[in-house]
Amino acid sequence: MSAEQETRAVRCLVAKVGLDGHDRGAHVIARAFRDAGFEVVYSGLHRAPEEIVQAAVQEDVDVLGISILSGAHNTLVPKVIEGLKEYDAFEDTLVLVGGIIPDDDEADLKELGVAEVFGPGTPMEETIEFIRNNLPERA
Amino acid sequence: MGGTDATALSDGDAELVEELLAGSHRALARVITRIENRAGGYRGIVAALHEHTGGADVIGITGAPGAGKSTLVDKLAAAYRDRGDTVGVVAVDPSSPYTGGAVLGDRIRMASNVGDMDVFFRSMSARGQLGGLSMATADAVKALDAFGKDVVIIETVGAGQNEVDVVRTADTVAVLVQPGSGDDVQTLKAGILEIGDVFVVNKADMDGAERTLAELEEMVHRREGPTKGLDGGHHGFEVPDHPDDGDAADEGDEPAWTPEVRQTVANTGEGVTELIETFDAHATHLRESGAIESTERRRYAEEIRTLVRSDVGALATAEIERRGGIDELADSVRRRETDPYSLAAEIVEPIADCVEAAPEGVGSAAGNEGADPVDDET
After folding, report:
1. Which of A19, B36, B168, B203 has the fewest beta carbons under 10 Å from its own?
2. C-beta atoms of A55 and B107 within 8 A
3. Residue from B268, B143, B283, B153 nearest B205 by CA
4. Which part of the chain is the B12-binding domain (chain A) (predicted)?
5. Pick from B65, B67, B62: nearest CA to B206
């Protein structure tokens, strides 16, 4: 008789990777996600890709939002995605990238498995809506 | 144990349990998610894990916001790793009662264990209803224990009954206090003082540390009086059956543990080794005095009660629905057709009938739970 009500919540990791000390955007996003009813784990600044992978796997997040403003996305994002695959966690994690990403790179990142790239000025509702519509299916 | 519908394992879940026991981090993370979600089948998973638990030392860390819990937990985890122990951490943060959303920030402080998967850190939010949080935490601890973690640390803000319940699921409870917080020490008296096995004055390099230390020492020794015996739990009546040493423990006559007061500077790691030694001493004390049995008995009794209460509550809710829903019933009370007491009695009656009509043998399954700790003792 497990008539308990399910209490599923969308879990997100908002991650800052590499030598990039600008986290105002990440904070604003974290708050907006929280207000949307998501559970947000914030990584803190200057994280290595392995740390992000460790956090994403252990926290079992539905959404991994990587914020990069340093221009190092072509180096860092592939490492994170490889790491997720190593732990068998890539398939059901929605990987998003936020920051200043040139169009050409955006295509490459999507090729790699990034679901969407959000540039400066993206309305918060758009990102939240995108997450709601693209949540990975889970058992 | 009981293979009823509620604890039946689907093939997929059985595989998940296998993977967890085989050491898959992904499976462990997934199991904890299922536990948090109270998603279908999670009970079967926890039931299957139960027999693999009992190997970990479970330590609860609580204290006021800003006392340095997360930083200390980070340093503790690193120190445990240095001596070869694997570590699991469950960090509980409050969630917004309005949106259900939460920012789980404890992970930010986990800087000493970068990329070390043998420190498994999991943030949880207080999602559900009353009592649900401590249950979910206890179940998550079981998952980490079954996975094979040597030490499991539960970290939570020390405010309110919910958090006290959470931290009570640990074997050893450390209460963190920061210097100069005379008022904090005052607030500690309400509930948290009784549960601390170790008091830690963190940020001991700050002004006022000495004084806070002295205040705590004084309070700890004062507590030996009036609240003594509270730790022993409510099981004195089982004593006559087993007049051996183990039962002296139940009576509260065992060499009682006097809470230790320690100081640390979590930022630099100062005092962390000594703190771990104190935790070890408490764990040894629990085992040697037999107090661990009463602790476990109390804890499992609480779990059984919580589960039964929630299940019976669900049955009652279903019965309310069957009678037209709570609004309908409330309206009939409002129209003075009936009253709340009569209605409640009517709703509970079918459940009560079942309990009274049940054959004698049915009760024995529950007896097993209570008997387990006693078996260990002989």
Report:
1. A19
2. yes
3. B268
4. 9-138
5. B67
Is the ipTM reported for this complex over the cut 0.90?
A: no
Distance from CA of B267 to the nearest CA of A (A): 17
Strand partners for B62: B156, B175
| Contact predicate B238/B262, CB 8 Å | no
Burial label, A92 (beta-carbon count in 10 A; 0-12, 13-18, 19+): middle
pLDDT per position as a tens digit, A3-55 = 456 667 899 999 988 888 888 888 899 999 999 989 999 988 888 899 999 99
Instruction: Quote the minimal CA–CA distance from B65 to chain A in Å.
Output: 18
CA distance B81 to B114: 12
* Nearest-5° Cα angle at B62, B57 to B63: 155
CB contact under 8 A, A6 and B114: no
Residues of B in contact with A136 (CB under 8 A): none
- Which ranges of chain B have pLDDT less than 50? 1-3, 226-252, 365-378
- The residue whose two tokens read 């009992």 is B54
Q: What is the pLDDT of residues B99-135, one digit of tens each?
A: 777 778 778 877 777 778 899 999 988 775 555 677 8
Structural domain spans, chain A: 24-56+67-103+111-133
Report the C-alpha gap between B163 and B195 in whole angstroms: 11
Query: Are the Cβ atoms of A1 and B6 closer than 8 angstroms?
Result: yes
A37/B30 CB distance under 8 A: no
The CA distance from B265 to B279, in Å, is 17
Per-residue pLDDT tens digits for B7-35 = 778 888 999 999 999 999 999 999 999 99
CB-closest option in B6, B101, B311 to A37: B101
Report DSSP state, residue B122. Answer: E
> Which residues make Cβ contacts (< 8 Å) with residue B139, sequence separation at least 6?
B35, B42, B46
Chain A nearest C-alpha distance from B352 (Å): 17
User: Phi then psi for B194, rounded to 5 degrees?
Assistant: -65, -25
Share of chain B above pLDDT 70, in %: 77
From B32, B40, B104, residue closest to A60, measured CB to CB: B32
CATH 3.10.560.10 is held by the domain A24-56+67-103+111-133: no
Q: What is the spatial order of strands in the sheet that B87-93 belongs to?
A: B119-125, B87-93, B151-157, B57-63, B172-177, B198-201, B260-263
